[in-house]
Specification:
Blueprint (H helix, E strand, L loop, with lengths): L1 H19 L8 H11 L21 H4 L31 H5 L6 E7 L2 H11 L6 H14 L9 E4 L4 H7 L3 H17 L4 E2 L3 E3 L11 H8 L3 E3 L2 H4 L3 E9 L3 H12 L4 E9 L13 H15 L4
Parallel strand pairs: 1-7, 2-3, 2-6, 6-7
Antiparallel strand pairs: 4-5
Helix pairs in contact: 6-8
Length: 305
């Protein structure tokens, strides 16, 4: 089977380079190129294996199957992975940051951990401008949002905005594309009545957050956002949509501004979230049961019982 696939790939490359790629190609070259895309699909952009069927989304079925939700114990407020030191006997365990500095949002959820296939697809979507991935990724996020406790079916959806130069450079706001898919899925399949509002805008350019410390990220974002339409958010429940949750600096700052300007509440949903390496896997037990069981396992590992 592997040999057959390799022969197929070799033939595709030959036809593309020697027939369809010729400089003296006839006037119908565009039609031929389109036909070649159907007859000879390109490789998967994640695993580099050949796509065995034509699709607008350049990701194979196997890699799509690797998009799975998180199955770890998480902070009830921000979604941070919890180690044993953060588990408590209460029903809503919190991470250390949220215990000492509660966020201005009610809850933050993320579909998956920012690693593996999901990280690759976010990179394709965001940095290589494969905008068509917004449908696949947005549908995954929509299913996570659907399960958010207490989310109003009439919530106002606010995408995290880009500064104008970044928007011009990229050509689209990835958070807006994800938000549109979330609204499409939840309104169309589950009778939500969500509405997107262009209520928040970025008023200053900021440094890339990637190499900044958590403190530097917070300082970097101070004064970066403003509400452009107070009437759209006044006394409304807000669902803030972004692509990646890293330290939470962006989510906290946006939620703070929205609440300050009159929003009744703010919840956050992101496609991916960075997590700590040490986390307690979800066992199917309730939080209290899981805490007790986890403590027992830890003591056993330490030779205490």
């Amino acid at each position: 089977m592997k040999l057959g696939v390799e022969r197929w790939r070799a033939r595709v490359r030959y036809l593309r380079s020697h027939v369809l790629g010729r400089s003296d190609a006839p006037p119908g070259r565009n039609l031929a190129d389109s036909l070649s895309t159907v007859l000879f699909p390109s490789d998967c952009r994640v695993c580099r294996e050949p796509l065995l069927r034509a699709s607008r989304v350049p990701v194979c079925d196997a890699c799509r199957g690797l998009l799975v939700p998180q199955t770890i114990s998480m902070c009830a407020l921000c979604g941070e992975a919890l180690g044993f030191e953060s588990l408590r006997l209460e029903d809503a365990p919190l991470c250390r940051v949220c215990r000492f500095s509660p966020p201005p949002f009610t809850q933050a959820v993320a579909f998956g951990e920012y690693t593996g296939a999901l990280r690759e697809m976010v990179g394709l979507f965001k940095f290589e401008r494969v905008a068509v991935l917004s449908r696949l990724l947005g549908e995954k996020l929509a299913e996570e949002v659907r399960q958010m406790p207490g989310l109003s079916r009439n919530a106002i959806v606010v995408p995290v905005p880009l500064f104008r130069n970044r928007l011009t450079e990229r050509g689209f706001n990835q958070s807006l594309l994800l938000a549109e898919q979330v609204v499409r899925v939840l309104n169309g399949r589950y009778n939500f009545r969500l509405r997107i509002a262009d209520a928040l805008h970025r008023v200053k350019s900021t440094e890339n957050q990637y190499l900044l410390t958590p403190r530097q990220r917070r300082q970097n974002l101070r004064g970066a956002f403003a509400v452009r339409d107070k009437a759209a958010i006044a006394e409304k429940d807000i669902l803030l949509i972004d692509d990646i949750y890293t330290t939470g600096a962006t989510a906290r700052e946006c939620a703070r501004i929205l609440r300050r300007e009159g929003a009744a509440s703010a919840r956050v949903a992101t496609l991916a979230r960075t997590q700590r390496d040490v986390a307690v896997p979800w066992t199917g037990l309730t939080t209290s049961q899981q805490s007790i069981a986890g403590t027992g396992s830890l003591q056993q590992n330490q030779g205490l019982i």
